[in-house]
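During data preparation, we tokenized the protein backbone, and the record follows.
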Amino acid sequence: MGDLKLNGATSGTITLTPTAVAGTNTITLPASTGTMALTASPTFSGTVTATTITSPSATALTLQYGGTTGATLDTSGNLQFNSGYGSVTTAYGCRAWINYNGTTATIRANGNISSVTKNATGDYTLNFTSALPDASYSATLGGGSQTSASSRIYMEQHDTVLRSTTQLRCYSLNGSFAPTDSIVFCAAVFR
């Protein structure tokens, strides 16, 4: 393991160095400027006093590991990170995702989707748990069928029918472009 360095707003760094012992260490940051408590298992006692843990006024908060920038929170609130691709860049989070059975509209797993409404064969409305900031999102759809090998399912997302900050309507079509239910239907929404 290496050190984790936090660059100061104007100068200096705070370096966190992990111990070489087994166990779990937890750092709890204060809600504002003040003292943060360190707790560990099996035993540890003490405190670390922070000068300030508030948003910097002119620079970004940067996390480094072994001298390499791993993540940055810029002054606009954008989270940027390097996940092994060679550069630190803004992350665009998946606002909602789902894996469901299109035949029964039964949700297998999801994030930020409260329910699926089956409007008709191959016609679904995905209802978001938390509203998106606007309807200018990107929806990626996919799915499949376990019927004959020649059966191909095409997914088409219609923003002219219903696309809002609270729901997305989507369709499942077979190779002849007729509505059909997909046993596996997946969607991911990015903004």
Observations:
- The mean pLDDT is 75.
- Residues 4-90 form one domain.
